[in-house]
Amino acid sequence: MNAKPNIDMLEATRLTREGRLAEALAILQGGLPSSQPSPASSNARGNEGPRRERPAARIIDMVPPSSRGAAWTSPKFNFPHMAPDGPDGSAGGLSQPQMPEALRGFLDRMGQPGSLAGFDGLVGPGPVRAPAPLPDGARFEERTFANEAGSRTYRLYIPSGYTGQPVPLVVMLHGCTQSPDDFAAGTRMNELAEEQTFLVAYPGQAQSANVSKCWNWFNAADQQRDRGEPSLIAGITRQIMHALSVEPGRVYVAGLSAGGAAAAIMGSVYPDLYAAIGVHSGLACGAARDMPSAFAAMRQGGAPRHRGAEQLVPTIVFHGDRDTTVSPVNGDQVIAQSKASSDLRSTVSRGQAPGGISYTRTVECDDSGHPMLEHWVLHGAGHAWSGGSPSGSYTEPKGPDASREMMRFFLEHPKARAASRS
């Protein structure tokens, strides 16, 4: 395939996912130059002029199989982005019979395994870089956990300062198209673990479970305790707690994007296991229950059907206010869900990171003045890990250091009792 068709297909795919079917179909039929800029496209950096950038990867790319072992398919039965909202504010949809035949064929081809190869910048991985050398005495191991829901490999960072003494454990959940190694490089959490001496686990989503390696936060079956992917993540956590010396009550979970949504689920359904959670550019537990509601929640927020834990879950949220992949309103909903019915006092402060990105930080404290919730709104930032390294994908190096701030928040919140290891 020559360069021109590749560009056309990339543009058609992007327009399709933005709901601009007529333009996508025109490109497929050769009637619209792919070089024509889209009015809806935006510069991820916000203030660097009109230079057009490749479209960022979307969270959702395929519909999960309806039965075990079935194939993933393109989301062709209902696209919230593809029709105006209804009069009651609900997301509009487009049924398959309404979709032009040529476009349906294109989406069907996109749904076939391996068909995304070559669509760099759409769902492709970031550039492959050699892993950074480990400090003397540190280990970055690959392990596997399996249960009735399946199996997942994960990477475990053991810092050189660990000699068997009890240390905290942080579980890090990557976003779509990422890998444990990529996420470790981008967040620099291993460097922080080496500095402060704690364990870091990076569960890896299997491509057989999601073609774009997204955690399936939008599936109702993957939002329940001891079921589906939550059982696998919790199982990985407990496996580490059995194998190594983890400090009682100092187990935490955090994630980016789809991984952030998965972290919110883990905090809601395993409040006994995780002392606090970190959600970066993610969504609340139960914000979606299927593919159509996932698109709607990403665009305009979703009303979480899951009521969350009965008690407050200490939570720190980071979200860019120019995130066009997951609407910033979702950060508000994560905080609201974690807060439950607690009566807290809010303090708002503003600042600017050394890299230049300004932020608004809202801290909610209990009656004793102890911070229980933190919400960082990053002004001008998009869908990327704040303060991360360009060595990984989906990072914004100019923002405040989300990894360091999350660890500071986590260590302020030990649980009174050790989490169950059963």
**Helical stretch tally:** 10
For the biggest β-sheet, the strand order reads 1-2-4-3-5-6-7-10-9-8
Specify the CATH homologous superfamily of the largest domain: Alpha/Beta hydrolase fold, catalytic domain
The gyration radius over C-alpha positions equals: 21 Å
What portion of the residues fall into strands of 2 or more residues?
15-25%
Give a quick account of the main beta sheet: strands, pairing sense, barrel closure: 10 strands, mixed
- CATH level-1 class of the largest domain: Alpha Beta
Question: Mind telling me which CATH architecture of the largest domain this is?
Answer: 3-Layer(aba) Sandwich
Please tally the β strands and state the result. 12
The helix content is 25-40%
Taking all residues together, what is the mean pLDDT? 78
Low-confidence stretches: 1-7, 31-126, 417-422
Principal-axes geometry comes out as: globular
Distance between the termini: 54 Å
- Structural class by secondary-structure content: alpha/beta
CATH fold field value of the largest domain: Rossmann fold
Pattern of helices and strands: HHHEEEHHEHEHEHEHEEEEEH
Give the tally of structural domains: 2
Question: What multimeric state do the chains show?
Answer: single chain
